[in-house]
Amino acid sequence: MEPDEHVEEAQVSHGETGTVSLALGVAAVAMYGSPFLTFLPPFIRYFPVYLTVPLGICAIVFGACVLYGMRGDEGADRRRARAGIVLGTVTLALPLILLVGLELALQR
Questions:
Q1: Whole-angstrom Cα distance, residue 47 to residue 64?
Q2: pTM of the model
Q3: In 3D, which of 76, 78, 26, 75 has the Cα closest to residue 52?
Q4: Which of 30, 34, 57, 63 has its CB 3.0 to 4.6 Å from that of 81, i.e. a possible disulfide?
């Protein structure tokens, strides 16, 4: 056997791994905590909350694109992309749950 034959087997797929999706999802969820930073001025404290929904959407889209690109690759690690999709979904679901809860509370 020649050394060149083993080089192809030893290569690890360095393609997309879903890290961007995971980072966007974590950032979106973490931005919900910014109003609790009372030492900051109100504008700086509440501005990140407006970015949570776009970041959540981006996390879902990037994670779905990575999972779509990993189709058929049995050795691919899909955990980061899936975690980014879950965190993006949580980010989008939280405001909806709050709005429904407020609507139900106001109807009483």
A1: 27
A2: 0.78
A3: 26
A4: 63
> DSSP character for 40?
S
What is the C-alpha to C-alpha distance for residues 32 and 88, in angstroms, rounded to an integer?
12
What are 30's two structure tokens?
Answer: 């973490």
Give the separation between CA 100 and CA 95, rounded to whole angstroms. Answer: 9
**Element of type H or E holding 103:** helix 79-107
CA distances from 14 to 11, 32, 41, 51, 77 (A): 9, 32, 43, 30, 11
54 pLDDT more than 70:
yes
User: In degrees rounded to 5, what are phi and psi of residue 86?
Assistant: -65, -45
Query: Do the beta carbons of residue 66 and residue 16 sit within 8 Å?
Result: yes
Residue 32 is encoded by which pair of tokens? 């919900």
Q: Are 85 and 65 in contact (CB under 8 A)?
A: no
